[in-house]
Write a structure and sequence with these properties.
- It contains seven helices and 23 strands.
- The protein has 332 residues and is of the alpha+beta class.
Length: 332
């Protein structure tokens, strides 16, 4: 489960040009606008990540005007990327005193504060019956944001990574194991239903037949995009899936990217747009700047970001860099 609220340390504070009442606090790789003087370097803070959905309680009422949302029939406060005085601000810093107890840096307080991840309403085209939970024999993909890997970043500098565009859609997995074929969303295996976009794509591309013909136990993972999904920002007329991983079920390992591309070609499925091999730059600010740009799928829209992968098997390193320009323009 994602750690949405953790105890961290303020690494740096910076002034904001033309601002007398606010300043910038840097926590690991994240930057948050705060009241001037509210936090100092070395202070312990509760850092709440973007996408957090905070419950309605007195300590969070200052968020009502800007962040009130309803999810699953209950009100709460959703944290998003905002721009204040020209400065990107991501997340929220809180004083740990609201816990009313002692604490340790690194502690996860997500559940204690009643915080959950904000999930947008599920469109009708993605609904339907479920067969069961996401299969345990397939590894889920949920890349960590680079801002949460600040302590590891120095070890990445200069290394060559396979970089591809991160597509803004919904998770798609199709697998074949011991003669069984299944189609899954992010958390569930889905019952066959032609009204469901996952299964429509599976049928349209004959994924069952083509995966079976390979004679291997594999899972193909990609991003499902199209009408009714994430505002269809790529302007597609029919649902489509773009592959970003192929998982070897028997070996319990992701295939190297060249092998992934070969399997995708055999299945007649497009891959997410590759950017190429890139070396990790010196700073997190630089790598976030690289994430910005137009989408290869639709040059009229900002791309969501990039995914970086190095190595394979036990040595595999991967993370994502989300474009601040995309987030500032209302991307989820």
């Amino acid at each position: 489960m994602r750690k949405l609220a953790t105890i961290r340390t303020v690494n740096e504070t910076r002034p904001i040009d033309g601002a007398d009442m606010i300043e910038l606090a840097v926590v690991d790789g994240w930057k948050c606008v705060t009241k001037k003087g509210e936090f100092s370097v070395g202070d312990a803070v509760i850092y709440c990540e973007i996408d957090s959905f905070l419950p309605v309680r007195d300590e969070f009422e200052f968020l009502r005007k800007s962040s009130l949302k309803t999810m699953d029939d209950r009100e709460g406060f959703r944290l998003r990327t905002v721009k204040l005085r020209g400065q990107i601000s991501q997340g929220l810093l809180l004083n740990p005193s609201l816990l009313g107890r002692s604490f340790q840096v690194g502690e996860d307080v997500t559940d204690e504060l009643g915080i959950v991840k904000y999930e947008a309403p599920i469109p009708a085209c993605l609904g339907g019956e479920v067969v069961g939970a996401f299969p345990a024999f397939v590894a889920k993909t949920d890349e960590e944001r680079i801002q949460n890997l600040a302590s590891d970043f120095a070890s990445y500098r200069g290394k060559a990574f396979y970089v591809s565009e991160k597509i803004d859609g919904t998770s798609f997995t199709a697998f074949v194991k011991d003669g069984e074929f299944g189609v899954c969303g992010r958390n569930w295996q889905l019952a066959e239903d032609q009204s469901n976009s996952h299964w429509r794509v599976a049928h349209a591309f004959s994924i069952h037949e083509r995966m079976t013909a390979l004679g291997r136990s594999l899972a193909v993972q990609g991003e499902l995009v199209g009408p009714g999904i994430q505002k269809n920002r790529y302007g597609l007329k029919e649902p489509a899936v773009f592959v970003f991983n192929v998982y070897d079920i028997d070996a319990s390992a992701f295939l190297e990217k060249s092998a992934m591309e070969a399997v995708s070609e055999q299945l007649g499925l497009p891959i997410v747009p590759p950017i190429g091999m890139l070396a990790v730059p010196e700073t997190i600010d630089e790598i976030l700047a690289i994430a910005e740009g137009k989408s290869a799928l639709n040059p009229k829209t900002e791309r969501e970001g990039l995914v970086w992968v190095h190595g394979s098997g036990d040595d595999r390193i991967s993370f994502k860099t989300i474009s601040n320009r995309f987030l500032a323009k209302g991307g989820d």
